[in-house]
Amino acid sequence: MTQDELKQAVAREAIKYVVEDAGSGVGTGSTANCFIDELAKIKNRIDGAVASSQASADRLKSHGIRVVDLNSVNELPVYVDGADEITEHLAMIKGGGGALTREKIVAAVAQKFVCIADASKLVGVLGKFPLPVEVIPMARSHVGRELVRLGGQPELRQGFTTDNGNLILDVYGLSILDPLKLETEINNITGVVTNGLFAHRGADVLLLGTAAWVKTMVRK
Ligand code: 5RP
């Protein structure tokens, strides 16, 4: 199977976690796009979707799926999203598409986080993929210096502004042995909105597309 076919396979599998007559949280990126396309096939059985980015909201609307404001829901049974890297403990690096803050907010509300990914995303140690950090523009240099102090090499994502009007620093050179600790440390830097480590709120379920089948891994 090609990488695209693996993404479609995990997206199809994720539909099993969607709760009928309720809203679903929807992530951002090429794998999440496959999920949106699958969701469209059952749009009459769901009560709309909460989007983690403007791009996903636009794709949902193009399929005729109602986009629901997160503030108008008390509960969200499930959130389905991709990842840039994920460990067997279901901690992740996310934010390759720059939507990490809204993704983290929707994930915080959701009862169950279902991560969908092709096998290339499963890693032993997080950090080969540069860690995205969303930063308030006036704090860019300060946050950059603090990230260097933590052992990283931050690079400004050129020509990119988040849906929240902020910047992204992509941090290279990290070998993240303690994702919980680093997530907290980076979030404690003044001027950081949030970082792309999803360790405190990791995935509950990983649907991993391998050549032979979709493997289901559950957070212990
Ligand atoms: C976007 C994300 C995506 O989930 C992540 O980048 C994976 O994307 P893709 O499915 O295209 O590989 O965090 O901010």
- How much helicity do the residues have? 25-40%
Widest sheet, order of strands = 2-1-3-6-12-13
Question: Which structural category fits the helices and strands?
Answer: alpha/beta
Described by its quaternary structure, the protein is single chain
Query: What's the β-strand tally?
Result: 13
Cα gyration radius (Å): 17 Å
What is the average per-residue confidence, as pLDDT, rounded to a whole number?
97
Shape: globular
- N-to-C SSE string, H for helix and E for strand: HEHEHEEEHEEHEEHEEEE
Distance between the termini: 29 Å
Biggest sheet, in brief?
6 strands, mixed
Bound molecules: ribulose-5-phosphate
Low-confidence stretches: none
**Distinct helical segment count:** 6
What is this structure, in a nutshell?
With 220 residues, the protein is of the alpha/beta class. It is built from six helices and 13 strands.
Question: Describe it for me?
Answer:
By secondary structure, this protein is α/β, with parallel strands linked by helices. It contains six helices and 13 strands. It has helices at 3-14, 30-40, 54-62, 100-109, 140-149, 179-187, and strands at 24-26, 49-51, 76-81, 85-86, 92-93, 110-118, 131-135, 153-156, 167-172, 192-195, 197-198, 205-209, 214-218. It has a six-stranded mixed beta sheet. The protein has a four-stranded antiparallel beta sheet with strand order 8-9-7-10. Strands 4-5-11 form a three-stranded antiparallel beta sheet, with helices on one face. Strand 12 and strand 13 (214-218) form a beta hairpin. Helix 1 (3-14) packs across helix 2. The radius of gyration is 17 Å and the shape is globular. The two termini are 29 Å apart. The model has no long low-confidence stretch (mean pLDDT 97).
